[in-house]
Amino acid sequence: MEEVVSRQFCREDFEDVCEFLIRISNKTEQYINWNWARWQWMYFHPDFDESQEDKIKLWFANNQIIGIAVYDFYAGESSFIVDPEYQELEVEMIQYSIDNFSDGDGLGIAINDEAVETVEKMLNLGFEKHENTENILCIDLEKSDLSYQLGEEYLVSNIEGLIDAWNYNRVLWYGMDHEGEVIENDETYNNTIKMLSAANIDYKLNVCIKSGDQWIAFCGCHYNKNTDYAYVEPVCTIPEYRGKGIGSIVVKEALNRCKEMGAKKAYVISDNKFYETLGFKQHSHYTFYWKK
């Protein structure tokens, strides 16, 4: 087997990490909760703690990434993804995560329930099973009915570019049930521009429904032609328009666009019954293991 070396992540590695995660997801679905799109969403999100990104570690064989240990937005939770051919690296990666990504409450890592050997390694390193979980749902885009009817008072559209920063910010603010009025200042604007400037973002897959000029629902989807799946994140409807079927329509429209581009299925991290009404079915389940 080839010599394995490791080093710290730097920003120039971003695309290579995307390619690695795509390659791994085509090999195994063990890490489908931490696919390339989740990495992108996190890395360009304003809550991502950039001050610690040099702690992210990469493992290489033949100058190709074969593993990554990464925190999730900020210290306290992390993930590790490794090529199935190099699973002997798991203990080293877990120990690195303990040493570098723990906070005052310790460290939590979500593990696929079917990864029995990995779970055993976690327990041997002092982790305990936690009540927190991640649930993955999947929809077969080729077999699902994604048709819909939208009232004439509404309009389906999508992000047009950075000019939509304030509309995007407002629909997420109210749609995600943040308290109080939306905050609109230079910091908010810059954070929103960062998200809308994410590498590989496809504005056409970021769909909104409008009532007049107001954005009332939103669904973001991520798709890469080197995979057969789309990833859904985020989805929201502002409170006064809930219960009208608007949320279902915005998701169906986004999924239809992914299907037209070549996606055969789509994943979402959720246990919300809403997605089951659209045709999503149980795919996999992840349990957090915690070391204090």
What does the secondary structure layout of this molecule look like, with pairings?
Layout: E1 4-8, H1 14-27, H2 36-43, E2 57-61, E3 64-72, E4 74-82, H3 90-101, E5 107-112, H4 116-124, E6 128-140, E7 155-158, H5 165-175, H6 186-196, E8 206-211, E9 214-223, E10 229-237, H7 246-261, E11 265-269, H8 273-278, E12 281-291
Parallel strand pairs: 4-5, 10-11
Antiparallel strand pairs: 1-2, 2-3, 3-4, 5-12, 6-11, 6-12, 7-8, 8-9, 9-10
Helix pairs in contact: 1-2, 5-6
Verbal overview:
There is one protein chain. The chain has 292 residues and is α+β, with helices and mostly antiparallel strands. Helices cover 30% and strands 32% of the residues. Helix 1 (14-27) runs antiparallel to helix 2 and helix 5 crosses helix 6. The two termini are 35 Å apart.
- Main β sheet profile: 12 strands, mixed
Order of neighbouring strands in the sheet with most strands: 1-2-3-4-5-12-6-11-10-9-8-7
Tally of extended strands? 12
Radius of gyration: 20 Å
Strand content: 25-35%
Give the ordered list of helices and strands: EHHEEEHEHEEHHEEEHEHE
The number of helical segments is 8
The low-confidence runs, each spanning 5 or more residues with pLDDT under 50, are none
End-to-end Cα distance? 35 Å
The general outline is: globular
Q: Can you give keywords for this protein?
A:
292 residues, alpha+beta, twelve-stranded mixed beta sheet, globular
